[in-house]
Input
Amino acid sequence: MARVRYIPAFFQPGFRLLDGNDINFADANPQLSLDGGNTTVNAMTQAAALAFTLVAAVTQFTVASANPAFALPPSGVNKNGQPNPNQVTMVNDTGSTITAFPGGANDVINGQAAGASITIVTGRTVTFTCVSDVGGVRTWKAVGGTSTGNIT
Output
């Protein structure tokens, strides 16, 4: 007796209509955004680093200012009214060490003190993942690269 092999059909054949709202949502919310060739801001404090807050999924820095720094996205929405990302990647191609500050005064990176920064050496890529966002306070986990602040 011949064996019949069942292959599931995930999509039903034939013409189907799509809701325009679904298409608009997909177009307005890209899954990956890239931001390359950036110059860091001159920042020795968290407040000054907020002048360059990461919003793209992947951000590459190629030119470093004096005291190069950036800030992670704070809790809430960005200037375009979209929710801030929960995962961002930073590529340091500047030839300088860059300081990463949390976006909020009480936000934490890798279990350090609230508002404490970490540094990322040149030639490294670090992915920051928001593991908790409670009461407007974000807790970040940084993975990759070699730097201070207990990056794994």
About this structure: The first helix runs from residue 20 to 28. The first strand starts at residue 34 and ends at 39. The domain at 33-143 is CATH 2.60.120.640 (Jelly Rolls). The CA atoms of residues 126 and 144 lie 5 Å apart.
